[in-house]
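Quick one:
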Amino acid sequence: MSKHFKHLAKYYQKALAKSIQFNQLCYYCGCEATGTDFCPPLNHCELVIEFSETADFIAVPSCYECNALLANERDLLLLDRAKKLKRKLAQKYAQAVRVFHVWEQDELSQMSPEFHTSIAAGIRLGKETQDRLDFPNYTLEVAGATVGIPHARSEFFVGEQCFDSFKAALEHCYSSYTLQKGKFYTLLVEECEGDFDKALSKYMHRFKKPTEAVSSIDRIKEFAKQHKQNSDFVARASTQLLKRYPELELEGALAKLYEDYIAK
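Output:
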């Protein structure tokens, strides 16, 4: 750090983790802290002061990668800076995170050695990145006083069911509905911003066509067996739902039947 920046650093409050369990961890992602991130960035400090802009003027522990990702970002508030980091981290490792959520470990044994190695590495990197994205920005302490901080999203809903992680909610969708994992994940992340109900609805409308090989009767029997329901009940209920919601197709009606009645 240059002498000029060292002088500017005196304007900042140095924040540390309030709990000892987070000591020496990056505030943004939970990796080992190797340096300090200044909010606002030191190279913007003088202009912020000159124009009396609202800023936090706080310095937090950060790892090398988070520091680098935020180096050129002119975010003046810690809340905005934390959100920006999560977005940039998710974008940087989007492919690995996708592999982690789409592939399962037990599927690797069916692959060629080369493909196995590639997918296994993607799963590991994706899991590590998802853990960093899920890391809850810990409570900070400045000169003995607690600093309010943003919290990571910790609840994910699919219908009325609540899950404590994105992965758990996604696995529920995979196991409860007939989905092509890659298509559903892309829809969920890129078009629906993580809204599982919206993604399921869009998927049913977009990819479930009447020309599918499985007939309505066979599909109803399959659904009834899967969820341990009477097939006559499923047939009557799905017919009523199709009348009530004419925009739905059979798969959409079955999905609604499961979420609104069976899963409760």
